[in-house]
Specification:
By secondary structure, the chain is of the alpha+beta class. The chain contains two helices and six strands.
């Protein structure tokens, strides 16, 4: 349970997800690693290799909040527990030596 939000995050499922384009119905497989939590929140890790060298790791964090009062809390406060979980799961700081985005 996280003090700031009073929420407990339990992983319901994890997968390497696919994406279906809504326009042409083409399917793109292996789009990233996705963790979905029991409350509908999720963490997604994706590689983006659009640059001339190396790759960028993108982390997407979505939090579901059904309580309309808590939904008004600053988004950085509400997302912080999931961001912390995302960093711990990925060991990104350990592997890259970076403590913040570049």
């Amino acid at each position: 349970t996280h003090d700031e939000t009073g929420k407990t995050y339990i992983i319901k499922t994890a997968d390497n997800f696919s994406y279906t384009d809504p326009i042409d119905n083409s399917i793109s497989n292996q789009q990233g690693i996705r963790f979905i939590f029991e409350d509908g929140s999720r963490i997604i890790y994706r590689l983006s290799g659009t640059g001339s060298s190396g790759a960028t790791i993108r982390i997407y964090v979505d939090s579901y909040e059904s309580d309309s009062i808590k939904a008004q809390i600053d988004s950085q406060t509400m997302l912080k527990p999931l961001v912390d979980i995302a960093l711990k799961l990925s060991k990104l700081q350990e592997y890259t030596g970076r403590t913040q985005p570049t």
